[in-house]
Amino acid sequence: MDDFSRSLSLAGASNFRDLGGYAGRDGRIVRWRRIFRSDHLAGLTPQDAHVLAELGLARAVDFRGRVESSALSYALPDVRYYALPIEPTVVQRAKEMAQTGQRMTEPKAVELMQDTYRAFVSDNAAQFAGLFEQLLAEDTPLVFHCTAGKDRTGFAAALILLALGVDRDVVMQDYLLTNGLYRRPESLKSSAPEEVLNVIWRVREDFLQAALQAVDRDHGGVQRYLERRLGVDEAARRRLADLYLQPYRV
C-alpha cells in the first residue's frame, strides 16, 4: 500500500498534487513524486519552498500567459523554469463581452469554457509538445502549472496520464479533484454572478470531454494526436513508461 498523499498541503498553493499511483500501461503504476500539477507558485511560503526542496523538485513548467506570469512571477532555488505560455482566452472573451455591453450568463460561460478546451487541442499543441519534451528529457521531479491549475494544467495532466496508459475514467476523476482542492483567491473582485464564477473557477466533466472529443473527432484518437501533433510516437511513449511507470514486478 502506497503511503503517499496525492495532494500536498502547501500554504501558498491549494491545488498542488501528485500524478502518481494510478494504474497505467500494462498495469504498471505511475511513479509517485515525479510529476506534479499545481496552481501558480508565486504565493509559496518559505516553508512551502522547503517542502518542495525536500521532494527534490527540479523543474517547473509554466503555462500562464505573459501578463499573468509577469504579474505573479516566482523563482525557486535549484528549480529550472520553463515558460510555455497559453493565453487565458476565457478572461479575454469575458472582458470583451463586458466592453460591448453583453451580459455573461451561466450557459454562455459554459460555452466559452468548452470552446477554450477545444482550442487547447487545435491551437496549443506546441506548448503541450514542449511539456512532453521536458518529460522525455529526464525524470527529475517536475511540476507544471497555470494560474488555477485547472484548465490548461488539467488538459496537460490528462494527456500525460493517457500517454502513460491510464484509463479515461480515472483521468477524469483526477481532473475533477480540483473542485475539492482549489481555493478561489479572496482578493478576486468581479461583477459576474456567482453562478458564472462557479463555471469559470471550477472544472466540469463536459469541459475536458469537449477537448477529448475534439482529439477523437479531428485527430483519430489520443495516440494519433500525441504522435502527429505532439511528436510523441510509440518509441517516446515507451520511454515515458520507462521513466514514469514502476518497473514490472517479478
TrEMBL record:
It holds the Pfam family Y_phosphatase3. GO terms for molecular function: phosphoprotein phosphatase activity. SUPFAM superfamilies: (Phosphotyrosine protein) phosphatases II (SSF52799). Residues 126-167 form the Tyrosine specific protein phosphatases domain. InterPro entries: Prot-tyrosine_phosphatase-like (IPR029021), Tyr/Ser_Pase_IphP-type (IPR026893), Tyr_Pase_AS (IPR016130), Tyr_Pase_dom (IPR000387). Gene3D superfamilies: Protein tyrosine phosphatase superfamily. PANTHER family: TYROSINE SPECIFIC PROTEIN PHOSPHATASES DOMAIN-CONTAINING PROTEIN, TYROSINE-PROTEIN PHOSPHATASE. Belongs to the protein-tyrosine phosphatase family. This is Tyrosine-protein phosphatase. It comes from Alicycliphilus denitrificans.
